[in-house]
Amino acid sequence: MQVLVTGGTGGIGFAIASHFAAQGHKVILADLQQSSIDNKVAELQQQGFAAEGIVLDVTDAASIASCAAKYPADVLINNAGIQHVARLEDFPPEKWQLLLNVMLTGPAMLSRAMLPGMRERNFGRIINIGSIHALVASPFKSAYVAAKHGLLGFSKVVALENADINFTINTVCPAYVKTPLVEQQIAAQAKEHNLTEQQVIEQIMLAPMPQKAFIGVDEIAATAAFLCSEAARHMTAQTLVLDGGWTAR
Q: With the C-alpha atoms ordered 32, 33, 38, 40, is the resulting torsion angle positive or negative?
């Protein structure tokens, strides 16, 4: 299978790409920075894996069209993400719109571009990397929470529209994962709440999780791979939650 991963050079994206590559699939790393793409593709190729890369801006229609034409994906992993932490009244409107463009409109438009090929081949798997914030909310993250909640509804509609072929679309929703994006959040939240970074980890991030542990990128990668397996062929429009028990409360 040809597997395209947006945000493919980041912590979660590269872990997913590496996992699929190790299973023998061709992976396409799609991201914004050519240098990062080249480095990560080379890393995979040095291990003997089939990997290529493409510069992709998920907020740009021409970039999406070019990507879909060059690399029609059997499996699309919508993983690209950004974050901004602020009270709504302090949230720059252009930043709010950018978060929705990257994490909701972008996945929708990239899925739209890939779907005709999937329908033609009678096979497709779309996996959205959501978040615990697709299910619950935290203060100061209105745009991120709105985008991730939106992914769930989007996935349900696309599942219904394509139930006539061998196609599934699901959303993987992890709690906090120790990635560079989360490291930035820790610093931002420390400033917003007037806490130390360790206090943010203990009192805010891991406080709702009974298991008190960050989710591993390997868990997310293995979950994505399972969703592409024959055992998951009838799992569609579902939300797979990796949250250490957060939402059990």
A: negative
CATH classification code of 2-176+216-243: 3.40.50.720
Please list, in sequence order, all residues whose beta carbon lies within 8 angstroms of the beta carbon of residue 176, skipping any fewer than 6 positions away.
132, 182, 205, 206, 209, 214, 215
Angle at CA of residue 99, ends 94 and 100, nearest 5°: 100
pLDDT in tens, 151-191: 999 999 999 999 999 999 999 999 999 887 788 888 888 98
Candidate list 96, 144, 154, 214, residue with the active-site label: 144
- CA atoms of 1 and 17, how far apart (whole Å): 12
Tokens 């995979």 locate to 44
Q: Six-digit token pair at 117? A: 């090929």
Three-state SS at 58 = coil
Asked whether the beta carbons of 74 and 127 are under 8 A apart, the reply is no
Under 8 Å between Cβ of 242 and 223? yes
pLDDT in tens, 56-111: 999 999 999 999 999 999 999 999 999 999 999 999 999 999 999 999 999 999 99
144 counts as catalytic = yes
Model confidence, pTM: 0.94
Ranges of each domain in the chain: 2-176+216-243
